[in-house]
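Table S2 (text version). Query chain:
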Amino acid sequence: MSPTAGLQQAQQVCREVLSNVTPDQMQNATPCASWDVAGLINHMVSANEFFAAGIQGQGPTSSDQDFASGDFKASFDELAGQTLAAFNAEGALGNEVKMPFGTMPGAAFMGLAINDTFQHAWDLAKATGQSTDLAPELATQILAASRQSIQDSYRGPEGAPFGVEQQCADDACAADQLAAFLGREV
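Corresponding structure-token output:
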């Protein structure tokens, strides 16, 4: 199995959710309080630029491009492919990635990319009335990794990387459990 298989699977899940978004849903509220569907799509597409630049040692980037007003699926496909290629480059996972909050190993940075890509696919599915039962096996793996790596000091109100863990039924799907763990109301 490729070391980037989890990232590729998270990207596929994201692409499937993106492909079911309709133009009349762009103003829908999302579980991410600061974004409507259009804003979330812009983040989901541009996050690929951020992750590709980071793993290549270029430091985080951000884009002001309005992907949601164009062919956001094609933009996602192109940038997700570039991101996957960057993580698959020789030695990339052994790189040290400089972030505003410190330095992290490339493999951990890829874990962040997987989590971000998958969780925002869940956010978009929730906001657009799609099923949130996304890739149960992958969701279970991300949840287990998140429980090991996300400390309480990373949680807080708006501006913190993760919200306060929310309640979730024990029999909820793994993606819903992950969302609740990351601070979303399920």
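Notes on Table S2: The helical segments are 5-18, 37-55, 72-88, 106-127, 136-149, 174-181. DSSP finds six helices and two strands in the chain.
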